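Q: I'm teaching a short session on how sequence maps to structure, and I want students to see two examples side by side rather than one. Could you give me a first protein with its sequence written out and its structure tokens following it? Keep the formatting plain so it prints cleanly on a handout.
A: Of course. Example one:
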Amino acid sequence: MTDDAIDAAGRRADPDQYRAAIGRLPAGVAIVTLVWRDVEYAMTASAVTSVSLDPPLLLFCVHEDARFREALDHVDRWALSVLSDTAAPVADWLASPGRPAIGQLGRVPHSVGPVTGAALVDDASAWFECRTSTIHRAGDHDIVVGEVLTARQGESTAGGLVHLRGRIRPVR
């Protein structure tokens, strides 16, 4: 850690320096989906982690102003697809600002989760269907903790995607 992360007055790190530094932490890439008012919502998430085994819980983070976040106020069931190493175009598309809210999954092959009714992306290495347990505000994002209702693995040879230094990269 460099001495310029906190100045003499104890102020926080510069946001640009923080973003550059935290970008060196490889993070898995997933798609989170839900259905609200008969519209499929989807977002790319790289802030995803396992929280607990008993009960099984996982979390993801969503920007407080995202359309997806608004939908979470009305829907408590959602799905998370851990993308495989060949799914970078899906991750890029569902992270694109300004994409249409309606039909955004039209170009993404998927099936419907039997428990949540939310999309499960075909090109994934694992799938989870969840029910929101709690949502915590944390700065400009919300931390969504979900109880895992179903968990399923894909092909044993499937790799994954990581977000590293502002880019999505395949790993095997």
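Q: Perfect. Now a second example for contrast.
A: Example two:
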Amino acid sequence: MNVLARRAAAEFVGTAFLVMAVVGSGVMASRLSPHEAGLQLLQNSLATGAALVALIVALQPVSASFNPVVTLVERALGLIDTRTTGALVGGQVLGGLVGTVAANLMFGLDAVTLSTHERTGAGLWLGEVIATVGLLLVIFGTVRSGRADRVAFAVGGYITAAYWFTSSTSFANPAVTIARTVTDTFAGIAPPSAPAFILAQLLGAAAGYVLVRILYPSFTDAPAAPAADRKVLS
């Protein structure tokens, strides 16, 4: 298997497991804590954040974006070419759909059921713009400042928090948004609501790209250890 195929496969697998975490934990939360919306969201956010940390740590040596807006910004920054971008985004979208089907089946639901959970309104769309901008700043700010080994924890922490401080519960991912249209569960989004969410995410991606270029115009090396630490290490 060539390098591009391996990277696309990693994006497929990683996005599939990410969506299984989102949808599966949503179903479990609904069953364990019925009529407790806040507790359901807490359970869903913690499971998603933890899964992101684990998946990024495991797959980062191959490819671990799991998100088309991240991949598109990588393309805009010249980090990958157009062919690679298409392969990775394709893997992400397909992986997300497979993840939803797997989660539905694990919990005894129909493999595919279109969501009836409408999510619409200017406040939710603004929430998606903000969630996406913040995610990109966290990812590229961490990586471009020479701390790529910490990006898994930064992303997991941010997404867990963004579930709570954004009105939309921080989808911030077109592949995950598409995948969540085919589950009529806690995590679902009605198909008519998805295009506006994805558009908001793309607008957030554009704004995030601009901020990344302004704040982090180039990669920097990892910060040098303080003198005291260097003595200990030497």
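Q: What should students look for in example two?
A: Point them to this: The CA atoms of residues 10 and 63 lie 6 Å apart. Also worth mentioning: The chain is about 70% helix and 0% strand.
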